[in-house]
Amino acid sequence: MIKKATLVAPGLAVAGVAVFWGFVVSWQWTSVSPLTASLLIGAIAGNLGLIPSVCESGLKFVSRHVLRAGIVLLGFQLSFSEVSHLGSRGFLAVISVVTVTFFGTQYIARLLGVSPGLGLLTATGYSICGVSAISAMTGAVDGDEDDATYAIALVTLFGSISIFALPALGHLMNMGNVRFGMWAGSSVHDVAQVVATATTYSHQSLAPAVVVKLTRVILLAPLVAVYGYRHSQSKKHEEPHEHPHTGAQRVSLLPMFIAFFLIAVSVRTTGALSTDTLSNLKHIEKTFLALALVGLGAGVKIKKLRLLGSRPIILGVCSWALVLATSVITVRLIPLNL
Prior knowledge:
mainly alpha
């Protein structure tokens, strides 16, 4: 335990310093989210070689485990009653976006000759919640680490572009604050990216964006459960001698952090938590997500993106266009009495 703490400490310290400056940037320029600033600081420092190799373990820790903790804490900001406020059409719109993007991305991957593993993980990241969804699906289907890395690179790249591109497109289309928030929540990949995108457009866009986004996040649980079950069933039909090392591995049908997330939503729904408690949890959640984004940003190397080749990049562009178009069409169809 002490040895592990020693390994992650340098990376945690670097991430902490980056988050501090991310919040400083946000205080100076209120239009810039501290999450966005932390992501950019991590990406710039990582690509300029300013982060020592000894920090690698700690940055991986924050980008994976701290991120999941942040997702769980996000659950305390959403009650099941808030989801119902979307109405049946709003919920159907979220279902439509997830379904079209998930299966459409895999179809595009087959047309491009991209590996099924990369196609599945990219589809999961684009349709649900970016990096955390990719991590959950990778664990559920015993996915390839390289495929996961490439998928994370794609959702991080295009999710980051969305932070700046979507507000500009929203203004061109004269979108209202609530409708834009729903568009951002239904199309942008990671939760932190959704928050950054919505706040870039307007403060009034944040609430609907978060509600729609976390509704998508909830859909991760059944999706991962279905594919995890299919994977476990396929393993049963394989000959033991073909994969001698996989028999001892257990595939979790529901990743623990998703279960905790749903528990957090349930607790929030009861109304047992005070306003001060919820506010404190929100501050911790924002700090955790900012730490995670530093790690994610530092891990996205431009050199690695070049190694993806043209086909995965084309897949990323097509999937991004697909989720943006599907979500803007469905959101336009939702009647808003505002």
